[in-house]
Write a structure and sequence with these properties.
The chain is 28% helix and 35% strand. It has 4 helices and 4 strands. Strand 3 and strand 4 form a beta hairpin. It is globular.
């Protein structure tokens, strides 16, 4: 199966590695891509595990999973990355995530903030 993140790699060679072991993620963009794939697959555990402990929405896990499984994901489009490299401690990724819901195409446009927590890249939330 091709990876949902749009990398043109097979899932087993791409986001599945991150889904099995968060320490395999080396950049903020890679985490963004793996989180998108987790939405496509309805993998709420990974979405929580890869979310920074200060902003992790544990009470919303079931509703996030339910919503993610209720829509048809189309594609991820990475628009910009700032920092977020292997040696960085923080970074941002601006993206569009397209999905089909209630008979029409919708898009999530977001500039996401990422930081390292205990040496691992984590999604912090919306960046300024």
């Amino acid at each position: 199966m091709n990876c949902p993140c749009g990398s043109n790699n097979f899932y087993v060679q791409c986001c599945e590695r991150a889904h099995k072991d968060l320490s395999k993620v080396t950049t903020a963009e890679q985490l963004m891509r793996s989180r998108y794939s987790a939405f496509v697959l309805g993998n709420g555990n990974y979405l929580m595990d890869s979310h920074h402990s200060n902003t992790r929405p544990l009470k919303e896990k079931k509703s996030i999973e339910s919503w993610a499984k209720s829509v048809s994901w189309i594609r991820l489009e990475i628009l910009n990355t700032e920092k977020g490299g292997i040696i960085d401690q923080k970074g941002t990724v601006t993206f569009n995530a397209y999905f089909f819901e209630n008979g029409k195409v919708e898009v999530i446009h977001e500039k996401s903030g990422f930081v390292k927590e205990n040496g691992l890249w984590m999604y912090l939330g919306l960046a300024e």
